[in-house]
UniProtKB/TrEMBL annotation:
Organism: Clytia hemisphaerica
NCBIfam families reported in the protein's UniProt record: small_GTP (TIGR00231)
Any one GO MF annotation of this record: GTP binding
Protein name, entry field: Uncharacterized protein
Record field: transmembrane: none
Pfam families membership: Ras
Family per similarity comment: Belongs to the small GTPase superfamily. Rab family.
Top-rank lineage group of the source organism: Eukaryota
Keywords: Nucleotide-binding
Length: 261
């Protein structure tokens, strides 16, 4: 072996040299679990040692669980939004949600994997009292209204009031005006929705489950907001997960309706 300045000549230029004379040579081999094998040399010491050096960039970051609730009056298109985001599909005929439906989807946000647990709550008045069961422990809530219905916008205001009074502390709130593909039938101006969001400190998006406009953006901005927050309120409350199995079975009792999303 040829040596140069006390080190094997075949080695590349060291990536790091520290004050005590230690030279770190990287990247030699990729080991399991993201470890990097790096040759470590110390001046005036001929013995070659091999150490395992962890690098943060090559370690897979564990995914974070985010519980999100879709809330709003009936027929505003909550289920259509969930299906568009999770399965990238649109169905004009869906079953009315009984109590709640449940979806999951992995999403990469700014290099971080987040596991979204999406609760699609029923909008009918008779299920209103059950809503707290589903938004309990939620990190975010998407309040959906239909831009072609002033009544649904008033309903969104009522939902906002309820969440501000009884929802989890620091919950991320999004106001979503769905069906913006139906511009000729619009009853709620975009600026009206935006002003309402500004007044309440919520994020605002107009969207369309029909053509997928802004649907993914809604969930991405939630992930970004939560990942950037100091308390990282993204872990699901275990007590809220216990509802999952019971609520999912309720969907079999659904009745068919039109979903003009």
């Amino acid at each position: 072996m040829t040596w140069k300045n006390g080190f094997p000549a075949i080695l590349p230029k060291p990536l790091l040299k520290v004050a005590n004379g230690t030279l770190f040579y990287g990247k030699v081999d990729q080991g399991e679990e993201g470890f990097i094998l790096a040759y470590v040399f110390r001046r005036k010491i001929s013995k070659l040692s091999v150490e395992m050096a962890k690098t943060q960039t090559n370690l897979k970051t564990p995914s974070k669980d985010i519980k999100i609730c879709l809330i709003g009056d009936k027929n505003v298109g909550k289920t259509c939004l969930a299906l568009r985001f999770v399965r990238d599909e649109f169905k004009s005929e869906l079953m009315s949600t009984i109590a709640a439906s449940f979806f999951t989807k992995m999403l990469t946000v700014d290099g971080h994997e987040v596991n979204l647990h999406i609760w699609d709550t029923a909008g009918e008045e008779r299920y209103h009292s059950m809503a707290p069961i589903y938004y309990r422990g939620a990190a975010a809530a998407i309040i959906v209204y239909d831009i072609t219905s002033k009544t649904s916008f008033l309903g969104a205001k009522r939902w906002m009031e309820e969440l501000q009074k009884h929802g989890p502390e620091n919950i991320v709130l999004v106001i979503a005006g769905n069906k913006n593909d139906l511009e000729d039938k619009r009853e709620v101006l975009e600026q009206t929705g935006r002003d309402f969001a500004n007044e309440t400190g919520a994020i605002f998006r107009e969207c369309s489950a029909l053509n997928a406009f802004n649907v993914t953006s809604i969930f991405e901005v939630i992930g970004q907001k939560l990942l950037s927050s100091k308390d990282h309120r993204v872990l699901i409350d275990d007590s809220s997960l216990k509802v999952a199995d019971r609520s999912q079975t309720n969907n079999g009792d659904s009745k068919k309706r039109q979903c003009p999303c």
